[in-house]
Amino acid sequence: MHLHTEEERYGRKKERNTGRLRRILVDAICNPHWHGRELAETTGDLILLAYLGGADILGPMPNTKIPLLTARDTTVYVEGCRRLALRRKLRMRFIPIVMLNEDTTYGELTKCKKAGIVDGKIYPYLRTTRSAHGVKHWGKMIQVVKWCGELGIKVHVHFEHPDLGYIDRECEYLCLPVCQIFLEETDAIIVWEHGSDSRCIPMWKKFAKTGRFFLTITAHHLAWNEDDASGDVRKRCRPLIKPEPDRNALVYLVCEDCDWVMLGADDAAHPVDAKHIHDGKCACGDFTSPFLHLLCAHALDCLLQTKRGITIYNNFTSRNGRRFHKLGKASRQIGIIRRPSRIQPSYKVGPWIVESAGAKEELLYSFTS
Ligand SMILES: [Zn+2]
């Protein structure tokens, strides 16, 4: 599961030699891809758990039960999040994100801009959980993406092809030409959400040369490979967790310290009965919020051995996202230590019991005060 066995061994030896473990201070997480679910039911607890996992910025995804398709809906939702955070005395900021689809109008986008909403998200129709308002025809989106470019609204895309004729293993890779067309035909900033297929890396690097291409990667795609996820519904997510060579290549990409690569956790809570089902297919999403920094540290352990590496870790988990969204510095620092901890099996989230991805598994790091 870990690449850097030499460094790991070295790390362990060092711990033994010094007799005590080194506390590492890292920036609070900027997580521009977070699922807050329904305001009245679950959002308050989800904000608290994200805070405990180390975040101070959350970008709520607009695929709520009633999707956030307008400036008004998005503003009401984000205001609700702010109120819930305030009620719990949590210092948390939110990035408002509107859903974009074939029906999005120029008029609505100008309203968004006026309301300070400068991020939009495209979902592929029915390819993932809660995507009934997603896009069927990419071609029709070129005009919408163009408008976003004109208005300075960043376009975040769940790049998996909605045509189910394309098999799961290929449906992210096959979006490369779609992304290329968006970049060539518009002036918009494009964010490829939760990149998982390492075959895309050479093209991502080429796209990044435009200065208008950005990539988010989740902690779970960095920490686990297909074998780790196989047979475990708690790790079932979109895009699928890929084989070890992909995970390996994503970790290396993060280590390259590109300013266009940032964490987007896609931490998505589902009630236990939506995961362990007897009919149909389980809901997709990995719940990683309460231990997000530990999972990142576990996956990127190779970086946390040196001062330079810790800077790269902070860039990926926090600073690149803050710069991109113009959000200033982290509001707090989080203490972590290279002492094993175990992922809590489940959490109470409003009326739900939510099981963690990687429940009961050991992570290399623990939180420390
Ligand atoms: Zn998501």
TrEMBL record:
<dbReference type="GO" id="GO:0004151">
    <property type="term" value="F:dihydroorotase activity"/>
</dbReference>
<dbReference type="InterPro" id="IPR032466">
    <property type="entry name" value="Metal_Hydrolase"/>
</dbReference>
<protein>
    <submittedName>
        <fullName>Uncharacterized protein</fullName>
    </submittedName>
</protein>
<dbReference type="GO" id="GO:0005737">
    <property type="term" value="C:cytoplasm"/>
</dbReference>
<dbReference type="GO" id="GO:0006207">
    <property type="term" value="P:'de novo' pyrimidine nucleobase biosynthetic process"/>
</dbReference>
<dbReference type="InterPro" id="IPR004721">
    <property type="entry name" value="DHOdimr"/>
</dbReference>
<dbReference type="GO" id="GO:0044205">
    <property type="term" value="P:'de novo' UMP biosynthetic process"/>
</dbReference>
